[in-house]
Design a protein that fits this description.
Mean pLDDT of chain A: 97
Shape of chain B: globular
Largest interface: A-B, 38 and 28 residues
CATH class of the largest domain in chain A: Alpha Beta
Mean pLDDT of chain B: 97
Number of domains of chain A: 3
Strand content of chain A: 5-15%
Number of domains of chain B: 1
Number of strands of chain A: 15
Distance between the termini of chain B: 6 Å
Number of helices of chain A: 26
CATH topology of chain B: Alpha-Beta Plaits
Radius of gyration of chain B: 14 Å
Distance between the termini of chain A: 33 Å
CATH architecture of chain B: 2-Layer Sandwich
Oligomer: heterodimer
Structural class of chain B: alpha+beta
Largest sheet of chain B: 2 strands, antiparallel
Low-confidence stretches of chain A: none
CATH superfamily of the largest domain in chain A: Aldehyde ferredoxin oxidoreductase, N-terminal domain
Number of strands of chain B: 8
Helix content of chain B: 10-25%
Chain lengths: 607, 133
C-alpha cells in the first residue's frame, strides 16, 4: 500500500458491462501522481490515434490525486478527461465539490471508462460493489433533479456526477456536474452522453491513510492561518469581485472583445451580488475559504450557485447584459442543461456581433434576432444550445470556431477562440502571458493552464514580451501539478503561481516519499509534454496549431487602462520560440528526443 | 448538558470537522468514522447530526449492559467501550441520529466532546460549531 492512495484503478467497459481492477505499483504512482497525470497517461495509452471523441472506443477518465480526501486545500476536486468533441484535442477539466474524495473513500484512485451501453445507464459504486444500472428514467432530466432523485433512491450520502440533457444530445460544449460544481470546459459531458452514461454515484467508507498525520495537520494549519489573514475577499465575494477590478485594469472582455471595459460593470459587480442576491456561502469539500455562493434572481423565483467571475464575463460584459437576474438565471440554466458557461456566453456574444454586422441573418437563426445587451436573447441562446434546437442549435453548440467555418468570409475575425475553445475572461491583449498561454494550452482558451498573473502591473511592464513565455511555462507547470494532486488553484494565492517546495512537502507528508522540488517539477513537465504529444497525435499540428484569436493579433484595445495593447505577430512568434525552448520542444513545437528522455517519456518517442 | 451546537447559517459545508474528528479518534481521514456529520445539499442550508448529550438520554435507557451512562461530573453521556457488546440498540434509540456504526469497529461511534476540548469546534473555519446547552 502506498500512503495517500487507495491503490486501485477501476476500469469499466460499458459495452460488455465488465469491470476490472488494476493495482498499480508504487513506481507508477510516483511517476504519474494522480489527477491530470493519470488522465493524460490513460488517455494517451488507451485511446487509439484518430478515434472519434464520441465513438464507443473513446475513453473517459476521472481521477483523484494523492491529496484527495485529506485536509489539503480543496481536496475533494475531481479531474475529468477525454478527447474533446469540441476541439478534437484534450478535454480536461476539473470540478470542485467532493466527488473524488468519495471515490478514494470507496477505494479507487481513478476510473477509466470505455465502450457504450446499449441503453441509458448509471454506474453505482458502493465500496467494492460496482453496478451498472439502467437509467432510462433519468434520461432527459436536468442535472439538479437527476442528483436529487438519485440521492433519494440511494441515500444522501452518495456523491454524484452526472450530465444534463445537452450532454445526452452530444452538444460539444457540455459539462459534467457534481453537486453544483462543474467540470465545464471542452466537452466531457457529451463523451458520457455518447456512452449512454447519465450518472455515476459513489459511496465509500474506507480510510485515507497518510504517512505523517502531524505534518499534514501542520501544513493545513499553516495554510488555514494564511488564508484567514489574506483571503477574506475571496471568502466574502468569491471571484465575483473581479469584474470591477479587471475593468479598471482594462482587460474585461466586452461586446465580444470589441472593448475591454464595460460601462455598466457596476450592474454586474460582486458588490451588487453580495448586497442584493446573496443567499449563502458554500464550500467545496475540505476547503476553509468557501468562495462559492448561492445567489437568487430577484425578478422571478430562481437561484443558482454562481455566477463566478468567468460567467459574469461570458454572460455579462461579453454580451453586454447588464442585469444580474439574467446572468444568474442563465448560469443556473447552463448548469441544468450541463453546458460550459464560458463557451456558451462567448458564442452568444459572437452571434450578437455577427447579427449586428449582417454576417448572420434571421434566415440562419430560424427567424430570431439576437442583440447585445438583451438578457432574454442570452437566455434564448442558452436554451437553443442546451436543447440542440434545429440546425442553428446544432451549429452553435460547437462554438465560435465552427460558426466561423460554416459562415466563411470575415466571420473568423469575430470568433474568439484558441484551438476551438473560447478563452476565459483574462485578456490575452492586456496580458501577453495569456497570449502565449492560451496558444500553448493543450485544451485551447484555458485559464487553468497558464494563469493570468499580470494583474496589478503597470502597462509598461505588460506591453513587453519579456518574461511572458516564462510566466506561461511556470504557471502551466503549477496548474498541471495542482490538477494532479488534486487541489484548488486558489492555493496559488498563498503558495504562489509556480511549482514550489511546499507542494513536495504535501506530497511527502501524505505519501511518505522524499520528493524534492526538482522531482515534482519534472512530474508537471512530464504530464504537460505528454499532453503535447497527444495534441500533436490527434491534430497533426504542433506550432501551426498554437494560435490565438484574430482580434488579439490585429485589433489594439480601443479603450480603458490597457488602451493600445495587442500582440503583434512578431511578438507572438518570439514568445512561442522562447516558450518552446523552455519546454525543450523544437521550434516547430515538437518535444525533442532529449526532452522525452529527460522526462521519462522514452516509451513515447517513437510515436 | 453541554453539547456541540451548530449554526447552520454560518456553516458552508466544508466537512473539515469530519476530517479532524476521524483523524483524532481513528487516525485516518474518513468522514464515515466521524462522530459529527454535516449533511450538505444543493440550495439549502447544511444540517448536522451529533450526540446531543441528552439529560434523559434514550440511548442510556436502551443500553442493556450499562455501557452508556450519564456522567454528572463530566456532564456528558459516556460510552464505556469495555462494557459495550455492539448490539446497536443505542443507535436505534437515538432520536437525533447522533450515534453511528462503522463495520471496522465493535463499538459505536459517538461524540464525547473530545474530553472537553472539541476538535471540531477548534478547527471550524466559519465558527459554526460551539459548545453550549
Amino acid at each position: 500500500m502506498v500512503f495517500g492512495y487507495a491503490g486501485k484503478i477501476l476500469h469499466i467497459d460499458l459495452t460488455t458491462g465488465k469491470t476490472e481492477i488494476e493495482t498499480p505499483n508504487e513506481q507508477f504512482y510516483r511517476k504519474w501522481l494522480g489527477g491530470n497525470g493519470f488522465v493524460i497517461k490513460y488517455l494517451y495509452d488507451k485511446l487509439k490515434k484518430g478515434t472519434d471523441p464520441l465513438a464507443p472506443e473513446a475513453v473517459s477518465v476521472f481521477a483523484s490525486g494523492p491529496l484527495s480526501g485529506t485536509l489539503a486545500h480543496g481536496a475533494g476536486r475531481t479531474h475529468f478527461g477525454a478527447k474533446s468533441p469540441q476541439t478534437g484535442l484534450l478535454a480536461d477539466s476539473s470540478a470542485g465539490g467532493g466527488f473524488a474524495a468519495m471515490l478514494k473513500y470507496a477505494g479507487y484512485d481513478a476510473v477509466v471508462i470505455t465502450g457504450k451501453a446499449a441503453a441509458p445507464v448509471m454506474i453505482v459504486i458502493n465500496n467494492e460493489k460496482i453496478e451498472i444500472r439502467e437509467a432510462e428514467r433519468f434520461w432527459g432530466l436536468k442535472t439538479i433533479e437527476t442528483q436529487h432523485r438519485l440521492k433519494k433512491e440511494l441515500t444522501h450520502e452518495y456523491k454524484i456526477a452526472c450530465i444534463g440533457p445537452a450532454g445526452e444530445k452530444l452538444v460539444p460544449m457540455t459539462s459534467i456536474i457534481t453537486d453544483t460544481r462543474i467540470a465545464g470546459r471542452s466537452g466531457n459531458g457529451a463523451v458520457w452522453g455518447s456512452k449512454n452514461l447519465k450518472a455515476i454515484a459513489i459511496y465509500g467508507d474506507n480510510d485515507v491513510k497518510v504517512a505523517d498525520m502531524a505534518k499534514v495537520k501542520e501544513l493545513y494549519s499553516d495554510f488555514a492561518k494564511k488564508a484567514k489573514e489574506t483571503l477574506g475577499g475571496l471568502s466574502k465575494y468569491g471571484t465575483t469581485g473581479l469584474p470591477v477590478s479587471i475593468n479598471a485594469f482594462g482587460g474585461l472582455g466586452t461586446k465580444n472583445m470589441q472593448y475591454e471595459t464595460f460601462e455598466h460593470v457596476d450592474k454586474i459587480s460582486g458588490e451588487l451580488l453580495n448586497t442584493d442576491h446573496l443567499i449563502r456561502h458554500r464550500s467545496c469539500f475540505s476547503c476553509c475559504i468557501h468562495c462559492a455562493k448561492d445567489f437568487k434572481v430577484n425578478k422571478w423565483d430562481s437561484i443558482s450557485e454562481g455566477p463566478e467571475y468567468e460567467t459574469q464575463y461570458s454572460f455579462g460584459s461579453m454580451p453586454e447584459v447588464a442585469d444580474l437576474d439574467y446572468i444568474i438565471a442563465a448560469d443556473r440554466l447552463s448548469d441544468e442543461y450541463g453546458l460550459d458557461t464560458i463557451s456558451a456566453g462567448v458564442t452568444a456574444s459572437m452571434i450578437m456581433e455577427l447579427m449586428e454586422r449582417g454576417l448572420l441573418t434571421e434566415k440562419d437563426t430560424g427567424g430570431r434576432t439576437f442583440k447585445f445587451g438583451n438578457g432574454e436573447d442570452l437566455l434564448e441562446i442558452v436554451k437553443i444550445i442546451g436543447e440542440k434546437r434545429g440546425e442553428f442549435g446544432e451549429l452553435i453548440g460547437k462554438g465560435t470556431k465552427a460558426i466561423a467555418e460554416k459562415l466563411g468570409g470575415d466571420a473568423y475575425k469575430y470568433a474568439f477562440h484558441a484551438k476551438g475553445l473560447e478563452p476565459a475572461g483574462h485578456s490575452p491583449r492586456a496580458q501577453k502571458t495569456m497570449s502565449v498561454g492560451y496558444a500553448t494550452s493543450p485544451r485551447g482558451g484555458s485559464h487553468h493552464d497558464a494563469r493570468p498573473i499580470e494583474y496589478g502591473l503597470p502597462i509598461e511592464k505588460r506591453n513587453t514580451i519579456e518574461g511572458k513565455a516564462l510566466n506561461a511555462f511556470n504557471t502551466q507547470n503549477w496548474t498541471c501539478l495542482g490538477d494532479s494532486l488534486v487541489i484548488c488553484h486558489f492555493a496559488e494565492k498563498i503558495f504562489g503561481t509556480s511549482v514550489a517546495k511546499v507542494h513536495s512537502y504535501w506530497i511527502n507528508a501524505v505519501t511518505g516519499w522524499d520528493t524534492t522540488l526538482d522531482e515534482v517539477l519534472l512530474m508537471a513537465e512530464r504530464f504537460y509534454t505528454l499532453e503535447r504529444l497527444f495534441t500533436i497525435r490527434e491534430s497533426g499540428k504542433a506550432r501551426t496549431g498554437d494560435t490565438i484569436p484574430w482580434r488579439v493579433l490585429n485589433e489594439p484595445i480601443p479603450d480603458g487602462a490597457s488602451k493600445g495593447m495587442y500582440t503583434t505577430q512578431k511578438e507572438f512568434d518570439a514568445m512561442l520560440d522562447e516558450y518552446y525552448d523552455l519546454r525543450g520542444w523544437d521550434r516547430k513545437g515538437v518535444p525533442t528526443k532529449a526532452t522525452l528522455k529527460r522526462l521519462g517519456l522514452e516509451e513515447y518517442s517513437k510515436n | 448538558m453541554k453539547h456541540i451546537v451548530f449554526d447552520q447559517k454560518k456553516c458552508a459545508g466544508c466537512n473539515l470537522c469530519e476530517l479532524y474528528c476521524s483523524s483524532k479518534w481513528y487516525g485516518s481521514f474518513n468522514p464515515r468514522k466521524s462522530r459529527i456529520k454535516i449533511k450538505t445539499e444543493d440550495y439549502v442550508d447544511p444540517k448536522y447530526n451529533v450526540c446531543l448529550q441528552c439529560d434523559d438520554a434514550p440511548c442510556v435507557e436502551a443500553c442493556p449492559t450499562e455501557a452508556l451512562i450519564i456522567d454528572q461530573d463530566l456532564e456528558r453521556v459516556v460510552l464505556i467501550e469495555d462494557k459495550c457488546i455492539g448490539c446497536k440498540l443505542c443507535i436505534r434509540a437515538c432520536p437525533y441520529d447522533g450515534i453511528y456504526w462503522h463495520s471496522e469497529y465493535k463499538v459505536p461511534i459517538k461524540c464525547n466532546l473530545c474530553e472537553g476540548d472539541p476538535e471540531c469546534v477548534r478547527i471550524c473555519p466559519k465558527d459554526a460549531l460551539s459548545v453550549g446547552d
